[in-house]
Amino acid sequence: MSQNTSNRSSSSREGHFSSGKNNTYGTFPEGCYVYSKGRLALSRSEVEESLQKLLNCEKRPPKAVILGVKKCGTETLTGLLDLHPYIVTSIYPVSNNGCISLENVAFERSIPLTTSDEIGLLDMVGMQYSPHKVSELLEFISNDTKFILILKDPIERAISDYKHVLVKMNLPKGKDITTSREEHVWGYHRNKEIGPEIVKYFKGYRVAKSFEKSVLNSLGQIDVSNKLIYLGFYYDYVQSIFYQISKERVLILDGQAFIEKPWSVLKQVESFLDVPSFFARKKFQKEGKFFCPIIKERPDSGCLKGKGRNKPRVNKLVLKSLKSFFRPLNELLRDSVGANLSWMQ
Ligand SMILES: Nc1ncnc2c1ncn2[C@@H]1O[C@H](COP(=O)(O)OS(=O)(=O)O)[C@@H](OP(=O)(O)O)[C@H]1O
């Protein structure tokens, strides 16, 4: 849907994005979208065609692909980056079987419109479910496309994912959880036993009434066949990326630092992508546990909906077993990445 923006001109863009890293941004530039109040990066519509022409809006190859692992902050990162005056993001859809299927039409459709001053970023967090498709992805992007991956402590990730799955399944209080080993999903969705579509979506999860029961098997060992656990095997995922893409093209971000000081992580991205510096502490306001971006030119900025849910308190012994379980994997990852993210000890 186009908006009436015919009174705009491209003159306010002049001289803003000329020579990279050390530039700071001036006036908020005109772009190919207008934003309204609502969910970050999703409440936008294209400007009318005449203005698109004037601004030279096109679907240009994305400068970077944002990868990630569920609940590590990928969607939050994408939403915040979209507030940058020279960055436009969009999200590549995950199929309703919970996987990603790479197709020309879907890829073309996902690429955002950008002016020649802006860069486009494509969030493909769904790639985590299909790490073997990294080589396939290379056929869709150019040789210099960069990769951004945000990772959080795998235990924190599992707790966050547990809560997310519980909320999405809408488990009725006091009901026993059904088990279906064949489908490898336990639970209910909206008070009904899980149907085939939902089974696909939650395939691989085993979610019991407590987090502890969910992550331990009947022998009291960490249940490595549970998606809550195996999505935290970041080392394998990162290796599958490094196997095909040189390390210089990949930026791995600390999901914990992103919660504590989002502006510092966003600055890392600005520098990696060579865009003018925009994010700063003063653009955020702390509400509860999180910093919320407040950008006056963007009515869609503010706290992110559906994030920061209250988490269950986890039994100390179970936490200890999870820590010993993930420690060697985190060390492998630290050595392969060559960076020490705050949660990697
Ligand atoms: N500023 C800010 N506001 C809200 N949430 C923040 C923020 N920074 C980081 N996070 C972390 O992001 C976690 C949610 O991850 P996402 O849904 O964005 O990621 S993903 O797309 O599933 O990868 C979310 O996990 P939950 O607390 O479980 O929602 C947070 O740990």
UniProtKB/TrEMBL annotation:
An example molecular function term from Gene Ontology annotations: [heparan sulfate]-glucosamine 3-sulfotransferase activity
Active site (UniProt): 71
Transmembrane portions of the chain: none
Gene3D superfamilies linked: P-loop containing nucleotide triphosphate hydrolases
InterPro entries xrefs: NST/OST (IPR037359), P-loop_NTPase (IPR027417), Sulfotransferase_dom (IPR000863)
Keywords: Disulfide bond, Glycoprotein, Transferase
Residue ranges of every copy of the Sulfotransferase domain listed in the record: 61-276
Annotated positions binding 3'-phosphoadenylyl sulfate: 160
Region (Disordered): 1-22
Cystine connections: 292-303
Pfam families given in the database record: Sulfotransfer_1 (PF00685)
Compositionally skewed regions (Low complexity) per UniProt: 1-10
Designated name of the protein: Heparan sulfate glucosamine 3-O-sulfotransferase 3B1
Species classification: Eukaryota, Metazoa, Echinodermata, Eleutherozoa, Echinozoa
